[in-house]
Amino acid sequence: MKSKRTDQSSSAVALVTGATGAIGKAIATRIASAPGYEVVLLCRDAARAQAAVADILQRTGNKRVRHELVDLSRRDSITALAERWEGSAHVLVNNAAVTPRRREETPEGIELQFATNVLGYFWMIRAFRDHLLESAPARVVNVASYWAGGLDLDDLEFERRRYDNDAAYRQSKQADRMLTVAFAHRLADTGVTVNACHPGDVVSNLSRNLGFGGHETPEQAASTPAWLATEAVGAQETGKYFERHRAVSCRFGANRDAVEVLYRRCAGYG
Ligand SMILES: NC(=O)c1ccc[n+]([C@@H]2O[C@H](COP(=O)([O-])OP(=O)(O)OC[C@H]3O[C@@H](n4cnc5c(N)ncnc54)[C@H](OP(=O)(O)O)[C@@H]3O)[C@@H](O)[C@H]2O)c1
Fold first, then answer.
1. 174 pocket-lining for ligand 1 (C-beta < 6 Å)
2. Pocket of ligand 1, candidates 106, 204, 219: which has the most ligand atoms within 8 Å of its Cβ, to mutate?
3. Which contacts of 221-224 are long-range, i.e. CB under 8 A and separated by 24 or more positions?
4. Helices (H), the chain
5. Is pLDDT above 60 for 137?
6. Is residue 37 within 8 Å of 14, Cβ to Cβ?
7. Is the CB of 113 under 6 A from ligand 1?
8. Best mutation site among 44, 106, 248 for ligand 1 pocket (most ligand atoms within 8 Å of CB)
9. Residue 7: what pLDDT?
10. What is the pLDDT averaged over residues 6-10?
11. What is residue 6's predicted lDDT score, i.e. its pLDDT?
């Protein structure tokens, strides 16, 4: 079945993953509030997705908000979504992430944080590459974090190291920042930009699992990702990492050898 698209072809189409969560819903709301956007929430649970759509409609008055179901930890589910997608994709916000306290695996046997937080971003960009190119100028915003580091290219799934959800999370956010550089390089001069950012620290399922409580509101945390998604800066810059509306140098992205090894390792998952 082909994905439905509303008939206002002049609008920009923005996809937001994890839009039932604290920050993702606030990002989707901010984009839906901007003039001329159709917003598609990419979610895994129909009831939560419908509730988020209704809430955003009520807050913004934008009737061009809808959802599509996808499991972002599974390549087949992402590929199926991209294949049934009709029409444009001008903005892709990769935001969905998990932080399970115990090591879990997808049905395909991939550690769940790596599958969702890293491969989910990787597969979404690859699956929607042609849609983004056809819609160019287009942009990808990868929601990462300043809380990043400890990536082991030889143990991406915590098979050799003892699993710790904070360590796996920091690794995944480092990987998101590195893949931003890898994709920006590959999409240079195509009209598709790829940037990463830290949103802000908020209380959410994700942060509760990690044992920290954020001090910012979801609306504050949505500010930098939504700015990159809708304002000129997100089209002018590529391969950058932002915090609080400012480009910040990223030592992870600067290590081009490691960036390329990570890209190849991710590509090895199909
Ligand atoms: N919270 C913070 O303080 C903080 C700080 C820095 C960066 N970040 C980043 O901000 C982003 C959002 O975090 P958050 O705090 O808003 O988390 P959250 O409230 O826990 O939301 C996570 C979202 O991801 C979705 N999701 C998880 N696995 C999925 C899957 N397999 N398929 C589809 N959707 C899936 C969840 O869907 P369900 O509703 O179905 O569970 C939910 O919508 C993450 O990338 C995180 O790394 C957060």
1. no
2. 204
3. 221/22, 221/23, 221/26, 222/23, 222/26, 222/27, 222/29, 222/30, 223/30, 223/199, 224/197, 224/198, 224/199, 224/200
4. 22-33, 46-60, 75-84, 112-113, 120-127, 129-135, 165-186, 205-210, 218-230, 233-236, 251-254, 256-267
5. yes
6. yes
7. no
8. 44
9. 40
10. 47
11. 40
Give, rounded to a whole angstrom, the gap between the first and last alpha carbons of the chain. 24
Q: Are strands 91-94 and 65-69 parallel, antiparallel or unpaired?
A: unpaired
The residues annotated as belonging to the active site are 169
Ligand 1 neighbourhood includes 22 CB (under 6 angstroms):
yes
Instruction: Name the band, by pLDDT with cuts 50, 70 and 90, for residue 1.
Output: very low
| 230: amino acid identity, one letter | T
Total-model pTM: 0.97
Judge contact between 101 and 134, C-beta under 8 A.
no
Distance 137 CA to ligand 1 centre (A): 27
Is the confidence at residue 190, as pLDDT, over 60? yes
Full set of structural domains in the chain with CATH = 12-267 (3.40.50.720)
Return the pLDDT at 10.
66
Question: Which atom of ligand 1 approaches the CA of 207 most closely?
Answer: 1
Which atom of ligand 1 is nearest the CA belonging to 147? 6
pLDDT score recorded for residue 4:
37
**pLDDT at residue number 213:** 82
**166 pLDDT more than 90:** yes
